[in-house]
Design brief:
Strand order of the largest sheet: 1-2-5-3-4
Radius of gyration: 14 Å
Number of strands: 5
Shape: globular
Strand content: 15-25%
Largest sheet: 5 strands, mixed
Distance between the termini: 14 Å
Order of helices and strands: HEEHHEHEHE
């Protein structure tokens, strides 16, 4: 996974890339990925997604887990649905650049597992995110 981590870090400088033992986690800043209350990926981010997909295609023995999140505004049902839509939109974007569907799983987590406080706009912005976790397939 070190090679995967190094290649992603070098190719996708817009993202926070973390090596977690046997996995690599990729987190794009939420303001680059989605507008507030939206699940459409920003057009400006598509070249970055293409570079990310190209790296993933070089490491075809990996699986990708895409997890969508929201802030705490809105109902639980709404946030669960929005987070699922965001994760699936990210999956579709990777598939548009030839990452095989069989390698990708998605989860919508709603407002669960915040990484910042939901009491401020800056904190809520960090919680509106999609995380990509890359791991080796069994």
């Amino acid at each position: 996974m070190r090679r995967t981590y190094k290649k992603i870090s070098k190719s996708v400088k817009e993202a926070e890339v973390t090596n977690l033992n046997d996995t690599v986690k990729v987190l794009f800043p939420s303001n680059l990925m989605f507008a507030v209350d939206s699940f459409s990926i920003s057009k400006e981010l598509l070249p970055t997604i293409e570079r990310f997909a190209n790296v993933l295609n070089k490491f075809d023995k990996t699986a990708i887990l895409i997890t969508g999140y929201t802030d705490s505004l809105g109902t639980e049902e709404y946030n669960n649905n929005l987070s699922s839509l965001r994760a699936n939109t990210a999956k579709n974007a990777l598939q548009n650049y030839n990452v095989l569907q069989s390698r990708i799983n998605t989860w919508g987590m709603g407002e669960r597992h915040p990484i910042s406080s939901n009491l401020t706009e800056a904190g809520r912005a960090k919680n509106r995110r999609v995380e990509f976790v890359i791991l080796y397939k069994d």
